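Entry 14. Structure prediction run on the chain below.
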Amino acid sequence: MFTRRAVLGTLAASLAVVATPALAQDWKAKYPELVFAYVPSENAAGVSERLAPFMEYLSKEIGTKVTLRVAQDYAAVIEGQRAGQIHIGYYGPSSFARALMTGADISAFAIEVSKGGVKGYYSVFYVKKDSPYQKIEDLKGKNLGLVDPNSTSGNNVPRFALNSMKIDPETFFGKVVYTGSHENAVIALQQGTVDVAANWWNSEDDSNLTRMVTKGMAKKDDFRVLYKSEQIVNSPVAYLNTLPEDLKAKIRNAFFEASTKDKAAFDKLSDGKNEPFQPTSNDVYKPIIELNKFVDELRKKKSS
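Output returned:
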């Protein structure tokens, strides 16, 4: 269900768009500042520290100030773009799909690329390494830590996986809690608030957990993966369709040239794990829209 589609050559024509001085002057007067928002996959301080150099780079390349808005939850980014108040949104797949489903007039233009040109990642369930749990079924009556209702790897894929195991989280587990971020889910597991936690995982040396290890927030050896999902399409960056075409071209160019024009700022986004951004489109996220609808139906069945 989560198999990614290759995205081929839709960018060349749009990259060829070159603003005339008069047009550039027009949009700079209308957009003296662009607002950039990032879903809180990690805590607010971590997002600010990770994104600050990239905001400076974007401001220089686009030619107008780009300001980071640290969202309190995934829904804030969705609402902000739907209201036209966030010009550029850095989403997870499910939150982007939810934005489309709820009428946001946006287009995905760039996708994260992992090592080896891979444009996908996984959802995992972590348990403490020394815990007795060897499979999900061993966790009956224990506490589950999810991330956010609009998180792909931290809610929707885990709920899809549990349903495939014929497990209803709300009745199988003692308690299901939303921790607010992937970091908070690991911390809740670390502190014993939950017994199993959903999270994102690219590879043994690239995951939310390894990034927390780099920041001194956790020890990798304290946890083990109990379950790994099918591959999920990587996260997109999307802009408002109402932005001027020459401004959108500048934004795209800034993203696609970031790895060479400001390698330090680009590497900071992923602790140096990602390859350069590549073009994408809304169509790539159609399977995630179907995933969201599936999880919505599960919720409706339980409430009826």
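The first helix runs from residue 12 to 15.
Filed with the rest of this week's runs.
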